C-alpha cells in the first residue's frame, strides 16, 4: 500500500488530506502537523525553510509520496520531488484575481508575479486554529461564521472573478468568503492537487466504482498523525471526519 505524507503547520493541511483520502482510497496516510512552529506565514523565509527541511528528512524515510499541504512552505522552501499546494498564478488573468494568503506567501509571489489583488490577513490562520479548537471543545458544529466580521473588515471592496485561497487554513472560511464575493469562484487547489497525485500513481478517475467516502473505521486505520508540539489527535480526528463528509467543492 502506498503511503502518502502530508505536511502543514497545523489544521489547514487536513483539507488537503481529506481531498487525497477521497481520491485515493487504497492509500495510507501520515499527517505531519508542525504545530510547534505554527504559524508559518509570519515567520522569516529562513525559519520556514529550516522547518520544511527538518520535516522532509523524516518524511522521506517513512513515505512513498510527499505532499505539502501548506502554501507558505510550498512557495518559500519550494523543495524538489514533492507535490505542492500553491496558487497557480501563471494560469490566471491577474487583474481579476483576489489572492488571500499569508504575508510570507504574498511577499514571495509578488516577487514573481504582481498585478493581483490581495488583503492583509496576517493573523487569520491563527484565528482559524483558535476557532476550530473552541468548536471542538464545545462539541459544536464546525462553523466559522464568527470570523465573518473580521473578513468583512479586512477583505477589499472589489469585484474579483476568482478568489485564490493561498493558505490551507483559509479553506475553512470558503463559505464566508463566498458570501462577501457572491459572483466569484473560490479556488483552493486541493482537488487539482489530489488529481495530480492520483495521476502520478496511475490511479483511475473516481468513476471507476471506488468508494468516495471512507468509513470512520477505514479513516482511523489509514491515517497516522505526527505532531511536533502538543498532541491533538482527538481534535484532528474530529476535524478530519467533518471534512470527509463535507461537499467536495468545499475542499
TrEMBL record:
GO terms for molecular function: racemase and epimerase activity, acting on amino acids and derivatives. It comes from the Bacteria. This is Glutamate racemase. It comes from Candidatus Limadaptatus stercoripullorum.
Amino acid at each position: 500500500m502506498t503511503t502518502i505524507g502530508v505536511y502543514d503547520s497545523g489544521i489547514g493541511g487536513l483539507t488537503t488530506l481529506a481531498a487525497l483520502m477521497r481520491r485515493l482510497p487504497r492509500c495510507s496516510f501520515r499527517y505531519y502537523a508542525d504545530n510547534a512552529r505554527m504559524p508559518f506565514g509570519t515567520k522569516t523565509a529562513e525559519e520556514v525553510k529550516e522547518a520544511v527541511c527538518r520535516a522532509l528528512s523524516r518524511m522521506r524515510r517513512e513515505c512513498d509520496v510527499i505532499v505539502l499541504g501548506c502554501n507558505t512552505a510550498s512557495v518559500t522552501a519550494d523543495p524538489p520531488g514533492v507535490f505542492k499546494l500553491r496558487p497557480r498564478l501563471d494560469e490566471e488573468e491577474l487583474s481579476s484575481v483576489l489572492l488571500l494568503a499569508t504575508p510570507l506567501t504574498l511577499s514571495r509571489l509578488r516577487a514573481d508575479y504582481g498585478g493581483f489583488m490581495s488583503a492583509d490577513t496576517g493573523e487569520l490562520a491563527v484565528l482559524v486554529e483558535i476557532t476550530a479548537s473552541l468548536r471542538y471543545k464545545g462539541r459544536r458544529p464546525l462553523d466559522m461564521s464568527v470570523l465573518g466580521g473580521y473578513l468583512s473588515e479586512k477583505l477589499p471592496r472589489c469585484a474579483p472573478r476568482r478568489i485564490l485561497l493561498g493558505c490551507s487554513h483559509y479553506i475553512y472560511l470558503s463559505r464566508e468568503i463566498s458570501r462577501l464575493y457572491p459572483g466569484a469562484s473560490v479556488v483552493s487547489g486541493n482537488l487539482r492537487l489530489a488529481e495530480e497525485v492520483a495521476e502520478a500513481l496511475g490511479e483511475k478517475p473516481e468513476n471507476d466504482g471506488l468508494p468516495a467516502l471512507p468509513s470512520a473505521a477505514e479513516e482511523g486505520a489509514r491515517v497516522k498523525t505526527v505532531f511536533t508540539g502538543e498532541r491533538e489527535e482527538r481534535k484532528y480526528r474530529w476535524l478530519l471526519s467533518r471534512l470527509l463528509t463535507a461537499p467536495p467543492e468545499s475542499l
